[in-house]
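Cast an eye over this sequence plus tokens and explain the fold to me:
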Amino acid sequence: MRIDETVEIDAPAAAVWAFLADPERVAAALPGAEITKRVGEDTFQGGMSVKVGPLAAAYTGTVSFEFDESERSAVVRAKGQGKAGMGSADMTMRSTVAALGPDKTRVAVSATLVVTGILAQLGRGMIQHVSKKMFKDFAQIVARQVARDHVARKAP
């Protein structure tokens, strides 16, 4: 399944990129996600909990990040195994950060997601709906935190 989302954030592109290039800040801003251990320079172990319709699923696995500073783009690869026989999830996400003005930034995300097990049985529409909500919640948290950081830096 493919998921494409775009969000505009009222902050400079450099500030948004600095936030999104920090895996621990990203995980803290993504509802249900956690990093539990660094296992390589850009690879982490962690977990993800998500509620899809009547089901709550929890996954544990690894996530790796590849950053291109000059292009302000990133590739995130995550693989997780569901707890209690929930199946598995495999995601590759590409994101780009683009300045729209001095204090306006667009973040574009394109992800490919493969889910097996009981969540896959709920269907593509339900999973896309939950993914859109998670992205919207994540974008709002990022926007608030980046704006707060930006204001704090501008203060005398």
About this structure: The domain at 2-154 is CATH 3.30.530.20 (Alpha-D-Glucose-1,6-Bisphosphate; Chain A, domain 4). Helices lie at 13-20, 23-29, 118-122, 124-154. The mean pLDDT is 88.
